[in-house]
Amino acid sequence: MKRNYIAGEWVAGAGALANVNPSDLSDVIGEYAQADEAQAQAAIEAAVAAFPAWSTSGIQLRADVLERVAAELLARRTELGDLLAREEGKTLAEATAEVARAGQIFRFFAGEVLRLSGDRLASVRPGIDIEVTREPIGVVGIITPWNFPIAIPAWKIAPALAYGNCVVFKPADLVPGSAWALAEILSRAGLPPGVFNLVMGPGSRVGQAVIADARVDALSFTDSAETGARVISAAAPRRAKLQLEMGGKNPLVVLDDADLGIAVECAVQGSFYSTGQRCTASSRLIVQKGILGEFVRAMRERVEALKVGDARQPDTQIGPVASHAQLDIDLEYIALGRQEGARLLCGGQRMKRATDGFYLEPALFIDATPEMRISREEIFGPVACVLSADSHEHAIALANDTPFGLTAGICTTSLKHASHFKRHAQAGMVMVNVPTAGVDFHVPFGGRKASSYGPREQGRYAAEFFTTVKTAYTAA
Fold first, then answer.
1. How do strand 218-222 and strand 139-143 relate by DSSP bridges?
2. Residues 341, 319: Cα–Cα separation, whole Å
3. Residue 411: left if φ>0, alpha if ψ -120 to 50, beta else—which one?
4. How many domains does the chain have?
5. CATH number of the domain where residue 386 is located
């Protein structure tokens, strides 16, 4: 039984949950403790108690702790990548790369601890000096999704600790293994008791307890737009600082002058890799009419050749859907797309493999229109639809016709069109001739409109959320 970690101790839960492999439903990875509201409150209490000492601790101590975590993650990337692939269904190559990314994130913030800067300014009043510094905000509640079970926790936990905050971490129920492994590494990294706490359990009890508690000064949350709206409603009245990432319906524009090979590769990688279970996935392929027929033919050939199978097999390109619930959602949207009048060009059927798992053929729709639900709502599976555009301007209008604004991509050989798109795409991240899914760990991550709320994640911009600014005046 894998236990929760509260106040520096491994604590049994109020119940237990089996962690099942989506590639092989007969494979139970382990039993993981389920916390209740009382344990969530105990974790918050421990974080509150630890904050005064940790927030004023030496920067070398914090840097050393984060570097130890980074080194162990990178050294164990193969082992932990196998665990991640086994519990989430991401291919072994993708899972191993995700663990490495988590290690790189911790290493980056180990350096950021030593680079935290401020300003010394002259006052408009003679004989007064002004210092502007950043300080930790307090106890941070961190709630993460199941699709990146070690990278997303890393890019929230690492800056929180780097800047002197204490953490209460609630991972997604579906993927407790990677979260527990990260917590176990943190438990041995030299953190004082209570600085970091892990509470595994359902969002309805544990997550809600973290969101509602006035002792939690800030909340960093990644999930759906609907759940994000509930977090805002619950936390805003008590003035908690919020950082929310809530999905996308991301466009990839393909213009007539695009390199067809690059465009197809960007579309396949962005739409279907990680089984399409990425908030940055390019689920809307907006293609200019002059290249539409050629693009569709090439896409069909490429999509039908994708190898779907057990996530841990070396030749697998697309793993299973992460859960039965998500598989049902994907199949419902595929049926809906056909009912709405889009044409299912290929895929969309549940597949049988040697082991019983949640396997789904990558689905590609054509003849989609902007008002269709498959064109507007985030599906979060290996499902993409193609929309036709008359011109560059029309393509941009279609790209921006969405309540979301996380990422947007364009494939073109025109510098003029690329520059225009970068300026006019209503998204937090813009890609030119690269997939919409796939971002670096040292630069800001986040979107606009319904995709994001609050300061950006990752890179040095993380300081905007995980610190507060203090201005001090001193008479000479």
1. parallel
2. 28
3. beta
4. 2
5. 3.40.309.10
Is 438 inside any structural domain? Answer: no
Rounded Cα–Cα distance for residues 186 and 263 (Å)? 41
For the question of whether the overall pTM of this predicted structure is more than 0.85, the answer is: yes
State whether 172 and 283 are in the same domain. Answer: no
Total length of the chain: 476
User: Which token pair is 120?
Assistant: 């010394």
* Structural domain boundaries enclosing 23: 4-246+451-475
Statement to judge: residues 135 and 220 lie in one domain: yes
Judge if 186 and 37 occupy the same domain: yes
Catalytic hit among 279, 361, 385, 411: 279
Q: Are 221 and 245 in contact (CB under 8 A)?
A: yes
Whichever domain contains 125, its CATH number is 3.40.605.10
Alpha carbons 80 and 98: distance in angstroms, whole number: 10
**Is residue 279 a part of any domain in this protein?**
yes
332 and 351 in a single domain? The answer is yes
Residue 443 lies in a domain: no
Q: Do 225 and 362 have their domain in common?
A: no
User: Taken in order 245, 249, 254, 259, is the CA torsion positive or negative?
Assistant: positive
Closest by CA position to 412, among listed 291, 280, 281, 294: 291
Which among 87, 245, 361, 378 is annotated as catalytic? 245
Residue 24 counted as domain residue: yes
Establish whether 385 is a catalytic residue. no
371 and 273 in one domain?
yes
Quickly count: other Cβ atoms within 10 Å of residue 214's Cβ. Answer: 10
**Pair 115, 225 in one domain:** yes
**Domain check: are 213 and 186 in the same one?**
yes
pLDDT by 10s per residue, the chain, length 476: 999 999 999 999 999 999 999 999 999 999 999 999 999 999 999 999 999 999 999 999 999 999 999 999 999 999 999 999 999 999 999 999 999 999 999 999 999 999 999 999 999 999 999 999 999 999 999 999 999 999 999 999 999 999 999 999 999 999 999 999 999 999 999 999 999 999 999 999 999 999 999 999 999 999 998 999 999 999 989 999 999 999 999 999 999 999 999 999 999 999 999 999 999 999 999 999 999 999 999 999 999 999 999 999 999 999 999 999 999 999 999 999 999 999 999 999 999 999 999 999 999 999 999 999 999 999 999 999 999 999 999 999 999 999 999 999 999 999 999 999 999 999 999 999 999 999 999 999 999 999 999 999 999 999 999 999 999 999 97
Active site residue 67: no
